[in-house]
Amino acid sequence: MDTEAPGDSITEGKLLRPMFALAWPIVVIQLLQVAYNLADTFWLGRLSADAVGAISVAFPLILLLISLAAGFTSAGSILVAQYTGADSERSAGKVAGQTLSFVAMLAVGLSILGYFGTGEALALLPSQADTGEQVVPLAADYLEVFFLGLPALFGFFVFSALMRGYGDTQTPMRVMVVSVAINVVVDPIFIFGWGPVPAMGIEGAAAATVLSRGVASVLGFYVLFRTSTGPNVDLGHLWPELDTVRDIVRLGVPTATEQSMSALAMLTLTAMVVTFAPPVVSAYGLGNRLISLVFLPAMGLGRATNTMVGQNLGARKEERAERAVWLAATVGAGVMLAVAVIAAVFPDPIVGVFMATGTPEAAETIRYGAEYLRVRSVEFAFIGVLQVVLGAFRGAGNTKTAMGFSFVALWIGRVPVVYYLAFVAGWGQMGVWVGMALGNVVGAIAATLWFTRGTWKEAIVDEDPDEAGPEVPSGSVDGESVDD
Fold this sequence. Notes:
This protein is mostly helical. The protein contains 16 helices and no strands. The chain folds into two domains: 227 residues, no CATH class; 231 residues, no CATH class. It is globular and about 65 Å long.
């Protein structure tokens, strides 16, 4: 294993220290995002059960919009990383400014579309009669406020992504801490009212989210425009330039599509699972929440790898980029394997922590949940490898490749296998558990084999550090001139 010296950096020295420095704040940011969701759920649960249900109904539409943001902010992160590695501060700042202005225009357009189209969008969702009469109107109230504040939400996303590409994940983490603290304080005030603040109910939860994210966006813009932290952005960089926007779109659309496919796959799987008995459905939901926590270290390493690969390819250090990927994959697999052993040996007490006992239904849910967790522990090490390799492809600008292997994992290795095993082969809920685990195993093996070809080792930015705009090599697709 690499031993680190104080002078280690993303493009110089040993690799482990800068990789860890990038990864751990990303994990903290995601945990803070969980705190956002828990705060809303906690206070809305004290308002009414219908309010909690309304958040669940609204979530697929919110997830779809977040997927769009993730795609285009990821494109900015990739370009900033490669220009930073190429030691081209002017270009990194310009790409950051172009990403800001493009995402801002996208956010305004989606805000208007979402606000006026909320009712029609919710009408497309299947629901039972009582859900349609009680929950859907509350979801509409929440979404209308949420859509009005959408630019504030996207503002923090783009700031966080640009700083990650620059190699700074701790500043977004600090901003997120402030944002979560504001949300936790104002959530109950806006929902139930206090002093001169009227009770706004579920709309108050949406307003609290918009306010706290708005503060995060303002702080992020202050960092980018008024401090020396991050890429050097000035107001002149915000004026849209067609060539740069075209490259942001070229890199961003596959990632946005990938995220949307993931959301659609989860909806499809949920539609299959709800045909089972309630304890199986509950175990599936509980197990997925637990696994989403397990997923955080792998995701942190994957995003850190994105930056490591981007900056080293920008610096024309292809072999260092490859070493970073193998190191991250080894660490990710090792950490996730240790977690897998714990999950496989102690699934019952782990699941039991999150379930109130004392009823036959609870006991059955714990039994199914433990079974689900034990089966899925088989894939944990593969999750670590897959996230790192996908991060490497994205960092190299090969976002179509990353999208392709996400498609393999979800729509070849998971969705049809779950359907076949559960309903055709007659395995019942065990078919769901096994099919869910198999997807990441297949995806990790396929993506790693493709990675070993080495055809991703080509930067997508011009070698000239004075060049102001990004260039994709002639005849290439996503920067892969020979990757067919």
